[in-house]
Write a structure and sequence with these properties.
Elements (H helix, E strand, L loop, with lengths): L1 H4 L1 H8 L5 E9 L5 H10 L11 E3 L5 E8 L9 H8 L2 E4 L3 E11 L5 E11 L6 H6 L12 E9 L4 E9 L23 E5 L13 E3 L1
Antiparallel strand pairs: 1-3, 1-4, 1-5, 2-3, 2-9, 5-7, 5-10, 6-8, 6-9, 7-8
Length: 214
């Protein structure tokens, strides 16, 4: 709905690549503060890219994360107003992490449900130049399932190891069927993978099956 009211912003987003993904993980003082933290994150002024909601760890609801996709000219610095509002709810902040996008695709409407996986292990292939990786990206039509509304994959900047994967869906329980494949939720800690998810909200109408390059 946000996009329908701002067609110029949509045009800007779809004709430029996401340059960087910024992950901020932090721990709440009390799990009861999560709803308020969600409201603060949702109310913050977004960049050109639609905002990803607050994401909550599947292992501990006090551990939460935000993720931003930034285009050229947008700052990587955290919003100071948002940080000030969150400060009294937060017991500790993790160092902010930045990722170079390997893939950044989304459909026309924002998803209703998000799930994020972050790992520090696994060696990335650094033989490709940034221009070659950009040329290899899907340039539209990359999201073939109408249940997937967003797919971001990022490699951490400044290190050879690690990966970030964000998937957005239009279902309240999108992982109930076999077409997506299982996420190892019970084993996330043992496998060294941090998994976060948003609170699912049922979407109204089904999205159009049109994918746009972020």
């Amino acid at each position: 709905m946000e996009r329908a009211r701002h067609p110029r912003k949509l045009k800007t987003v779809t004709h430029s690549y996401i340059q960087i993904l910024v992950l901020q993980e932090f721990r709440l003082r009390d799990v009861r503060a999560r709803s308020e933290a969600e409201r603060i994150v949702a109310a913050s002024a977004p960049e050109a890219e639609p905002a990803v909601p607050l994401l909550t760890s599947v292992d501990d609801p006090r551990d939460v994360a935000t993720l931003r996709g930034l285009h050229a000219g947008e700052t990587t610095a955290a919003d100071p107003a948002q940080r000030a509002l969150l400060e009294r709810l937060v017991s500790s902040w993790q160092p902010e992490k930045q990722y170079g996008p390997r893939l950044a695709e989304r459909s026309a409407r924002p998803p209703s449900y998000y799930r994020l996986a972050v790992t520090e292990s696994g060696i990335n292939d650094l033989t490709q130049t940034p221009s070659a990786r950009r040329a290899a990206r899907v340039t539209g039509g990359g999201i073939t399932s109408d249940r997937i509304g967003l797919l971001w994959i990022g490699a951490p900047i400044g290190t050879h190891a690690g990966l970030l994967v964000l998937v957005g869906h239009y279902d309240a329980e999108p992982f109930a069927s076999a077409d997506i494949g299982g996420w190892p939720l019970p084993l996330s800690t043992a496998l060294g993978v941090r998994i976060y998810e948003s609170h699912a909200q049922l979407a109204g109408a089904r999205p159009a099956r049109v994918a746009m390059t972020a």
